[in-house]
Amino acid sequence: MPPNTEAKPAEPGIVQANRAVRHRFPFDDDQDFADARRGFMGTAQESVVGDAEGRTVWDLDAYGFLSQDCPDTANPSLWRQSRLCSDHGLFEVTEGIYQVRGFDLSNMTLVEGERGVFVIDPLLCAETAAAGLALYRSHRGDRPVTGVLYTHSHADHFGGVRGVVTDEDVAGGLPIFAPQGFMEHAVSENVYAGTAMARRAAFMYGAALPKGERGQIGAGLGQTVSTGVVGLIPPTVDISRTGQTKTVDGIRMVFQLTPGTEAPAELNLYFPDHAALCMAENATHNLHNLLTLRGAQVRDPRVWARYLTEAIDLFGDSTDVAFASHHWPVWGRERVIALLHDQTVRLLNQGLTPLEIAERITMPPALEKAWHSHGYYGSVNHNVKAVYQRYLGWFDGNPAHLWEHPPVESARRYVDFMGGAEEVLRRARESYAEGDFRWVAQVVHHVVFAEPDNAEARSLQADALEQLGYGSENGTWRNFYLMGALELRHGSVGTPTATTSPDLVAALNLEQIFDALAIRVDGPRSWDADITVRWVLTDGDPVTLRLRNGVLTHVIGRRAAAVEPDVEITLAESDLRALLLGAVPLAHLAASRAIEVKGDAATLTALLGHLSEPDPDFTIVTP
User: Is residue 520 pLDDT above 60, yes or no?
Assistant: First the structure.
């Protein structure tokens, strides 16, 4: 890992802009600090959470530097937010409800029942979840886990489940609750586009960046992602409607389904015996993400706002405390309702492009003064572009943008038009000296893509991105900028956390497995291939898999018999899954007489040879 000393100091324009932030916002308002520390019971004696091999997956002391005054290399507003998020330990929310905070990107909530404890959102990895549960037990006794709930389908809210319960616990009747549609979305998001999302998440959360005033200071929603084992135990109980109630270990719960908000499958839940409302990730102390920078489906702001309003209508009059799976709670009914406000999006129908709208929209003054509306994670700028994308797509209507050259070819032409790399860099250095880092990043990008080995261009681009990071209030923007600078200076540093884990892959149904294989087909290399494989399942419907014209399709059921296969393989579904997922080779199954093959088995090998392997460490700011 490159040392902090390789980073540059802040340029005068960034210093001035960051210092101006101190006078723009109410830094004397310390209510959030009081709330974040309320109910503190203690933290772990060991600061490092490690895995089975002794590798550090989370360091509680990594952000101790945030106790210092904000330096010129950080936006003071983001520094304040990161300082709040860095508080770690066990906290009492209200009698019988506790949270482990600061042990991962997300929070783990524990609700005490008659016999044990009910766990909500067991963090991202098993190691941090186990450490959090151990901390709880050290203060509240060795209570057994009597149930688990996933509030939504993002990995940081279910990935650590194996740190709190086992498959045997669940087989013995321990319930795991989740909103309807959870498995479909949890699996599809982390497997279909999982490699690309994980790679971009490495930039978004900056886990590979050095921690410090010139490096990673947080991600707005939390500090960063842990780097342990991500798992998944499928839910056993679906929550399918708003108003549905459940009682587990004497704990009464009332659910509100909120699909299409922060996640495609999500819910809020109310504890009537505690007058406590869990808002999942639908209302936290930052501006929401309508389109996360790691990549995902665009979220619907109208639906989200409607569910926030519904939460107020359903639970507002009887709620004394609201807590979420990130950040700290809010106490008092008036403050709870104020937090659950919605926002209006405008300017879409005035003919402006996404970039123009993003530059024009600003927060109303009253909202700008509210810390929880700041863009530490989502931002007004990229959320506006997300809304435009949701309703109008990627095309802004200008035919000049309809069929542009791809990045490298465009870059070569731009650089040639602008008088060559040397002239572009000469003028870019002038812009850098003037403090126009945004333009430097935009224009030098073309030189980097036109001439990837141009060391001067890579260095100048890295310097410009670094300065933009120093000035960013948004934690994920800062991490993207600084990760970009790191890649330009040192190449890819890898992807610390992979969410395409064995548990998630094992959760794929057959349809999803075939879809995941189809995504990996190397189209041009497969144009002339015409291969048909029929799987005759001893415990299910037959499946016909066909590669033709560079596209892999599958048909399940008897109608597949109309296609004459090149090879027919009879086997159990479990063996088919193991074969397609690479857990066992065809020769091994054949030798064990677990399958029957009619035709040339080499046909299957030929078909699988047309699949490409994803690159988990692809470059982002270099071609």
Answer: yes
Q: Within 10 A of 574 (CB to CB), how many other CB atoms are there?
A: 11
Tokens of 240: 């399918």
pLDDT tens, position by position, 275-331? 999 999 999 998 887 878 887 777 887 788 888 889 999 999 999 999 999 999 999
Q: How many CA atoms lie within 13 A of 461 on its CB side?
A: 27
Q: Is 60 exceeded by the pLDDT of residue 391? A: yes
* Residue from 503, 480, 484 nearest 379 by CA: 480
DSSP string spanning 252-275?
EEEEEE-TTSSSSSBEEEEETTTT
Going by C-alpha positions, the residue among 480, 483, 506, 503 that lies closest to residue 493 is 483
What's the pLDDT score for residue 478? 94
Residue by residue, DSSP assigns 170-197 as HHTT--EEEETTHHHHHHHHHHTSHHHH
Placement of tokens 């050095």 in the chain: 210
Cα(61)–Cα(48) distance, integer angstroms:
8
For residue 167, with 0-12 CB atoms within 10 Å meaning exposed, 13-18 middle and 19 or more buried, which class applies?
exposed
Q: H-type helices in 260-351, by residue range?
A: 301-315, 333-339
pTM beyond 0.85, yes or no: no
Burial of residue 263 (CB within 10 Å: 0-12, 13-18, 19+) is buried
C-alpha angle with apex 78: 74 to 79, nearest 5 degrees?
A: 65
Contact in structure between 354 and 396 (CB atoms under 8 Å)? yes
Give the type of residue at 614.
Answer: P
Given this model, what pLDDT does residue 349 score? 43
Taking alpha carbons only, the member of 141, 91, 93, 153 closest to residue 117 is 141
Residues 110/243/277/130 CA torsion (nearest 10 deg):
20
Tell me the CA distances in angstroms from 348 to 221, 306, 364, 384, 484, one per residue in order: 28, 19, 18, 9, 31
492: helix, strand or coil: coil
| Residue closest to 186 by CA, chosen among 98, 299, 263, 289 | 263
